[in-house]
Amino acid sequence: MPRKERHVVPNPKGGWDSKRENAERASKHFEKKQDAMDWSRNKAKQEGSELIPHRKDGVIQNPNSYGNDPNPPKDKKH
User: Fold this and answer.
1) For residue 34, what are the contacts with CB-CB under 8 A and spacing of at least 6?
2) Residue 48 to residue 45: CA distance in whole angstroms
3) Which of 8, 30, 52, 68 is 20 to 30 A distant from 17 in Cα terms?
């Protein structure tokens, strides 16, 4: 079963969007990244999905898995 993903990405018009993997439209739009992260974290926990935040330049930062991750990280930080 493929893993589900939820991304927090910058919106080209400003602010931040929470999007499911391969979605054209955002699930929800936020002015602040922290608000987008908080809402997306709760949704990822409900969905049992991977939360993948992006920086303004699109680079992925510290993803977290809230589902049944077949390849859990080796570090114990999370």
Assistant:
1) none
2) 5
3) 68
| Under 8 Å between Cβ of 28 and 73 | no
User: What gap in Å lies between CA 70 and CA 35, rounded to an integer?
Assistant: 29
d(CA 25, CA 69): 26
Among residues 42, 52, 40, 45, which one has the least CA distance to residue 68? 45
Domain ranges of the chain: 5-55
Q: In what order do the strands lie in the sheet with 16-20?
A: 28-30, 16-20, 5-10, 50-53, 64-65
Q: Is 66 helix (H, G, I), strand (E, B) or coil?
A: coil
23 - beta bridge partners? none
How many percent of the chain have pLDDT more than 70? 83
